[in-house]
């Protein structure tokens, strides 16, 4: 079967948009977010309620934490690369689009269980699709993925192992922040949906990557790869 050309730059655009929609749907479903974004969501939920902090949206919390993560990464690997800067640029773009998507998406009542389940499933599919597409582009991803890949290279460890450790630390951080800000035993952003995502994300992402590779031949439309790999 002849493969269709899919430009890697478009994979970046569609990947970011898919992640934005996915996170928005999952937030509205309120069954729990992925472990990666949960800490930022907890910070947003708490800090945005403080006097004068209404501007601290979910998107702002996302790229603020990712900036900190990039700075930590630079200290860990003891170097700076152009890709680190553009990873933060990606985080800012994603953050603004996330806030726009959250603003456009109406709230869902807690009694609308069927709709919430549908949104959660849709959000999970969009999130995994977004990650699978980002894997096909050379443009630096958000700091979460960059931190895992660069740390794995630095310490010569399997990416999967580093990703597993990072996810666990991220989940525990979100739970700790939730208990700290909202009271012991109160889970904000981390619920049963978070656990489900942790179990099935890897399988879904791998399946989507294989499916995409069968259908498409990913090619660069522009000669930018060398610049971003510096």
3D structure, described in words:
This protein is mostly helical. Helix content is 70%, strand content 3%. Strands 1-2 form a two-stranded parallel sheet. Helix 2 (38-47) runs parallel beside helix 7, helix 5 (113-134) crosses helix 8 (192-215) and helix 6 crosses helix 7 (159-182). The longest helix has 24 residues, at 159-182. The chain is globular and about 50 Å long.
In which range does the helix fraction lie? over 70%
Q: Tell me, what's the shape?
A: globular
Helix vs. strand class: mainly alpha
Elements, N to C (H/E): EHHHHHHHHEH
Q: Spans with pLDDT under 50 lasting ≥5 residues?
A: none
Q: In angstroms, what separates the terminal alpha carbons?
A: 36 Å
**Separate helix tally:** 9
List keywords for this structure.
two-stranded parallel ribbon, mainly alpha, 230 residues
SSE topology sketch:
Elements: E1 4-7, H1 8-29, H2 38-47, H3 58-77, H4 82-104, H5 113-134, H6 143-154, H7 159-182, H8 192-215, E2 216-219, H9 225-228
Parallel strand pairs: 1-2
